[in-house]
Fold:
Amino acid sequence: MKRLIISIILISSTLFSNAQNHEHHTTDTDSNPVKKGHYNISKFKQLKEELATPNAYRTASGAPGFAYYQQKADYQMQITLDDKNQRIYGEATVTYYNNSPDPLDYLWVQLDQNIRAKNSLSKKVDGGGPGVGYQPQKFVEEFMGKPFDGGIKLEYLQDTEGNPLHYVVNETMMRIDLPQTLAPKSSTSFKIKWWYNINNYLVTRGRSGYEHFDKDGNNLYIIAQFFPRMAVYNDVEGWQNKQFLGRGEFTLVFGDYDVKITTPADHILEATGVLQNREEVFTKTQIKRYKQAQKSYDKPVIIVTQKEAEKAEKTFSDKTKTWHFKAKMVRDFAFSSSRKFIYDAQAVKLGDRTVMAISLYPKEGNPLWEEYSTKTVVHTLKSYSKRLFDYPYHKAISINAKQQGMEYPMICWNYGRPRPDGSYAERTRTGVIGVIIHEVGHNWFPMVVNSDERQWGWMDEGLNTFTQLLAEEELEKGFPARGYPKDLIEYMTGDQSRIAPIMSQHDVVFDSGKNAYHKPTAGLYMLREFILGHELFDFAFKTYANRWKFKHPSTADFFRTMEDASGTDLDWFWRGWFYTTDVNDIGIKEVKQYIVTDQPTERVKRMAKAYGMTVDQFPKMLHLIDKDSKEFTPEMLLKKNPPKDFKILKDYLDTNFTKEEQNKLKNSKYFYEIVFEKPGGLVMPILVDYVFEDGTREQHNFPAEIWRYNDKEVQKIVASEKKIVKISIDPKKITADVNLNNNEWPKKKVPSKFEKFKNSKKTSK
Structure:
C-alpha cells in the first residue's frame, strides 16, 4: 500500500509540474530575455578536473598500471655514535637503480639535518612574537648570536673509483651531477662521508636527537634523518625535491640496507632491520632471555632489567661495540641507543609467522611502560594486520622518548612518563597507549603503503589515525580516541581564513592536527559508518592497502580505489570533504501531516483544467491532503471507512494480492511531509530518527544524492502505522553537523552559553 500511495503521489506531482512548466515557459518566452548560462556547479559534478588523467602507470580503477615503476636505493653504511661529543659520523656507499623509462642527468638527495644548520631556511620562514618561555640554551641560540651548529658536514662525495663528483647543496636538498647520463634500467653508485652535531631535541625541537638526564649525566639517543637519503623520482612529481621545512615529512625510496653502528660498549641499541651479531652485542643472559621471549605469546619477557639498566647508567665505558643490521625493502633506517635502556619483548603470532613486539625505555618510564608498552604493540600488530595486511617485518619496536611521537620502519619514538613517584593520571595512561598504537601503526602508512608525505600529510596521518581509532575501540570500550566527527565542529566553524582544505600541501596548513589527522579520520569514519557501511568500506580500504603496499600511491589512487572496490560514486564526498572547507548543516524546516482521500482535490482540478479535461475524465487515484489546508474537512478522515476500504484501493488489492498477503500489508494511517533544509555547503546523507507515540523509534538513512536536484531543501513523504511525535536528524552526532538548533521537530531550543551559565549557578545553589 505504501508503494502505491507514493507512486500515485509522484505521478500526480509530475503531471501538475508539467502543466505549470508549460504555462510558465509560454509567459517567459514572450516577456523575459534569455538568462545567462553557467558551467556545471553541481555538488555531484565528477572529479575529472581535480584528478590526474589515468595512464599506463596508474589506472582509472586506482590500481598500478602495467607500466608502473619505482626506483630503488641500496645503502651500505658504517655509523659511529660519539656519546662524549654528541656527534654522528658516517660513511656510505649508495647504489641507485633507475627503473624509470627516463634518462637521468642528475640525482637529488635529501640532507634533512640541514634544517638545523646555522643559516637554515627554516629559521627564516616562520614568523611570530615572543615564545612563552625559553630554556637558557635556546635563549642564547635565538638572541645572543650563538646558534646551534647543526647540519650535515660533507667530507667527500665520490664515485666508487674514488673520483670526486660535482654536487650542489640547496638547503636540505643536494643535487649530484652525474658524469654520464644514467640510462633507463641501469644503476649507479657513489660514496659519501659526513658528520654532524646531534641536537638536544628538548631545546631545539625536532624529530630526532638526544635527551640529556641531568641526574645521572646520561643521554638517550633517537637517531633518524642521519644519513643522505635519496629523493623519490616517479611519474607523478618527477623528482620530489621540495625543501624540508619541518612539518611536511618524508618521501623516500625503498631499498636494502646493510648498516653497522658503533656505540659505547655499555649501550643497548635497537634499530631497523635484522640484528646480525646478537651474540657479540648481548650478554649470554640477555640472549637466553631473548630466546624465551621468542616463545612467550602471552606476556613480555624482560631482556634487560631495570636493576641492570640502573647499574649501567652509573658507568661510562671507553670501549665500543658494533651493532650490525640488515633490512630488505624498507624506505628508511633509524636507531635508538642508551645505557639507560630497560628492554622487554613478546612474541606475536601473525598467520604462520612470529613477529617480535619490543619496548625500550629508561627507568623514568616505569611502571607505566613495563605494564603497557609491549602489550600495546602486540594489540596494534594484530588489529592492523587483520584490517589491512599482515605486518611484513620481523619486529616492531616502541622507544620511550620525552615529548616525542615519530615513526620509522620497525621502530618508533613515543612520549609519556609517570610522575617521579611512579603515579600517573588516566590521561597519561591513555596517551601512552594512543601514541604507541599510532606510531606503530605508521608501519602500514607510510612505511609500506609509501605515500608522498611532503605533499599530502593526510595520506599517512589521516589513514593511520583512522585505523588507530578502530584499534582503540577494539582495545577498550570508551577509549578517548581522536577523530570522531563530533569533535571537529569547533574547528570547522572557526575562522575560515585559518582553515585549509585537506587537499593542501602539508607545510601550508594552519592546523596540522585537525587538517591532516582529525578531519580525514572523521571523513573515513563517516564513510564506514553510514555512507558505505562496514562491509563495503572495509573491503575497499583493504584493497587500497594491498594494491599499494611497497609502492608509491597518489591521492587519486586512493580516491579511485575506494570507489572502484566499493562500487560507489563518491566524487561528491571527496570534493566536499577533502577539496573544500564547507560545513555540514542539515535541518528540519517544516513538517506537515496529511490525510488520504479518493475525492478530487483542488490540485487535481487545476491539473485537469490545464490539460483540457474534466474531473471525471481524470484518472481515478488516491490523494494526500495537507491536514492544515482549507480544503480539508473532518469528514474526509473517513474514520468509519479507513483507506483499505476505498473502492479504488480495495479493487487493486483484491486483484493483485491474496487475502493472506493483504493481511501482511502495512496499514498506514499517518502521512507526513518532512521538508529538510541544508544551510550548510556540504552535501551529506540525511540520518533521521522517527520517535512514535508508543516510545518506539525507526532510523532511516537518505543517501546524499537526495540533494542532487535541489541543494537547498528536499521533501520526503512518510507513511506510518503509528503517530510520529518527534523527528531528529543525526541524533548520534556522526555527520559533523555544525548546527544542532535545527535538528529536531518539534523544534528544541539549544540553551545559549549565558543560559547554561545561569542554569549551572542555580544548580550549584
Remarks:
- The two ends are 57 Å apart (CA to CA).
- The CA atoms of residues 121 and 127 lie 12 Å apart.
